[in-house]
């Protein structure tokens, strides 16, 4: 078993990674059960395919399940209200732990519910999508979406444990696997050019279901994320903001497509990273060759890398208007994640939004 620690003083916690771990979950989750019972929250897709394995793995521990609809629209006030009402009815106490079994949607929602339920109860992440295994289950960003934008209501609230079983990816639809892979590639683009090259070599086999490669990518990704979160838990030091590569553009694209399955989060991030590299090249900060290499790898793996691929036809001005809700806004200015090259991402604080809008208009024309 691989164990990686997120080091945050008294809020430190382990990430456990092993093929088959869900089927032995009782070994690590027994300590979180009260009166022989655990409350597991899952969406309906995941419950159908992975809950039986978790139940079996918990052995004698009783499982109370709360099922929610699948999809981004579940990160809503309505579902948060329904979930917290249900947890209160189940008499969850502050000292209890609830279990999020699912992708990033369930993890973000359940984490936020745990943060506010009776002013905070415990929670455990059992991520089942590639995206959740490499990114969202680690680091304690919890949230729901608001009408104005992505993750605008939430809290930094760390789980007590993350249990990762790569075998659960066997039931993940191919499109969801690709979307999660975008966040894997992100770690290479941020500060690890060798890992980006690893992705170029191994991405296709990983996406085709090679469990050894998936396990390697998960361990590498969460180790990178744990390191960054340990340095800058609340995104105040400029370090954690690097994990937002592709997200300022990406969240605007998600807003424009209605936070729906028209464009998945990982797909929006893929397109956002390609845009970020091409914008960096257009500003003379990064070589055109690197921007092209990034675009090519994302496109080769079937991810959107242009506005047209992403199905977005909005003007640059409209996309920039979405960006004004970005949580990185500081004193009315929006810092951008740009790059000097692959593995050389940095936070630029002096980007003119008019340049961004003009660039996006040109992108829309080039590919129309
Ligand atoms: N908190 C963070 O740090 C963080 C990081 C990245 C993304 N996110 C958020 O995560 C969300 C996206 O997460 P996601 O891509 O996991 O989406 P998701 O939770 O909607 O899961 C994707 C789909 O795959 C299904 N699924 C998940 N695991 C499965 C499995 N093993 N077998 C079969 N089906 C399975 C789900 O039911 C869903 O339909 C977004 O809301 C994004 O904002 C948060
Ligand atoms: O953990 C982080 O920090 C990230 O930025 C990871 C992102 O992949 C994730 O999508 C996150 O939810 C985006 O954060 P936000 O603060 O822009 O909502
Ligand atoms: Zn993301």
From TrEMBL:
<keyword id="KW-0520">NAD</keyword>
<feature type="binding site">
    <location>
        <position position="183"/>
    </location>
    <ligand>
        <name>Zn(2+)</name>
    </ligand>
</feature>
<dbReference type="InterPro" id="IPR030960">
    <property type="entry name" value="DHQS/DOIS_N"/>
</dbReference>
<keyword id="KW-0456">Lyase</keyword>
<keyword id="KW-0547">Nucleotide-binding</keyword>
<dbReference type="InterPro" id="IPR050071">
    <property type="entry name" value="Dehydroquinate_synthase"/>
</dbReference>
<comment type="similarity">
    <text>Belongs to the sugar phosphate cyclases superfamily. Dehydroquinate synthase family.</text>
</comment>
<keyword id="KW-0479">Metal-binding</keyword>
<dbReference type="InterPro" id="IPR016037">
    <property type="entry name" value="DHQ_synth_AroB"/>
</dbReference>
<keyword id="KW-0028">Amino-acid biosynthesis</keyword>
<feature type="domain" description="3-dehydroquinate synthase N-terminal">
    <location>
        <begin position="66"/>
        <end position="178"/>
    </location>
</feature>
<comment type="function">
    <text>Catalyzes the conversion of 3-deoxy-D-arabino-heptulosonate 7-phosphate (DAHP) to dehydroquinate (DHQ).</text>
</comment>
<dbReference type="InterPro" id="IPR030963">
    <property type="entry name" value="DHQ_synth_fam"/>
</dbReference>
<feature type="binding site">
    <location>
        <position position="141"/>
    </location>
    <ligand>
        <name>NAD(+)</name>
    </ligand>
</feature>
<keyword id="KW-0963">Cytoplasm</keyword>
<feature type="binding site">
    <location>
        <position position="150"/>
    </location>
    <ligand>
        <name>NAD(+)</name>
    </ligand>
</feature>
<dbReference type="Pfam" id="PF01761">
    <property type="entry name" value="DHQ_synthase"/>
</dbReference>
<feature type="binding site">
    <location>
        <position position="265"/>
    </location>
    <ligand>
        <name>Zn(2+)</name>
    </ligand>
</feature>
<dbReference type="GO" id="GO:0003856">
    <property type="term" value="F:3-dehydroquinate synthase activity"/>
</dbReference>
<keyword id="KW-0170">Cobalt</keyword>
<dbReference type="InterPro" id="IPR056179">
    <property type="entry name" value="DHQS_C"/>
</dbReference>
<feature type="domain" description="3-dehydroquinate synthase C-terminal">
    <location>
        <begin position="180"/>
        <end position="329"/>
    </location>
</feature>
<feature type="binding site">
    <location>
        <position position="247"/>
    </location>
    <ligand>
        <name>Zn(2+)</name>
    </ligand>
</feature>
<feature type="binding site">
    <location>
        <begin position="128"/>
        <end position="129"/>
    </location>
    <ligand>
        <name>NAD(+)</name>
    </ligand>
</feature>
<protein>
    <recommendedName>
        <fullName>3-dehydroquinate synthase</fullName>
        <ecNumber>4.2.3.4</ecNumber>
    </recommendedName>
</protein>
<feature type="binding site">
    <location>
        <begin position="104"/>
        <end position="108"/>
    </location>
    <ligand>
        <name>NAD(+)</name>
    </ligand>
</feature>
<dbReference type="Pfam" id="PF24621">
    <property type="entry name" value="DHQS_C"/>
</dbReference>
<comment type="pathway">
    <text>Metabolic intermediate biosynthesis; chorismate biosynthesis; chorismate from D-erythrose 4-phosphate and phosphoenolpyruvate: step 2/7.</text>
</comment>
<keyword id="KW-0057">Aromatic amino acid biosynthesis</keyword>
<keyword id="KW-0862">Zinc</keyword>
